[in-house]
Predict the structure.
Amino acid sequence: MKILVINGPNINFIGIREPGIYGSRTYEDLIDFIKKTAEEEAIEVSLFQSNHEGAIVDRIQEAYFEKIDGIVINPAAYTHTSVAILDALKAVSIPSVEVHLSDIYSRDEFRHVSYPSLVCIKSVYGKGFEGYREAMLFLRDYLEKKDL
Ligand code: DQA
């Protein structure tokens, strides 16, 4: 089972940016956490991070040709603005789960709008790194049931 984990703008800056919200662990720590989870759960994982909206759209489109089974996506600030990322997720029809390190619904009002939530089969927020694990396991179970 192939899962692609996409992280959007400034996620490469966790550990530096707003530690009171995003914690002190770095993006490299997040990569290690995701890879370890994938190994334990026998999931084949690919990782991608970009600060650019179009690059994220391109990566989602590539996932279609790579026959990626599921996508875990933290579009970061693009969550609240990007119809392009929403449309890309719709276009490829790959089951996707949205993740946020912080609880977007208890922060600024502009963060309460999530475009990807319109297409994602689940949203996980406010659980830090653990949210990525929850998203990967949810997708794994969903995909296994789908194939029965
Ligand atoms: C975020 C929440 C977004 O509102 C914010 O713009 C981010 C990160 C999160 O993981 O909590 O950059 O997606």
User: Anything to note?
Assistant: Residues 10, 74, 76-77, 79, 100-102, 104, 111 surround DQA (CB under 6 Å).
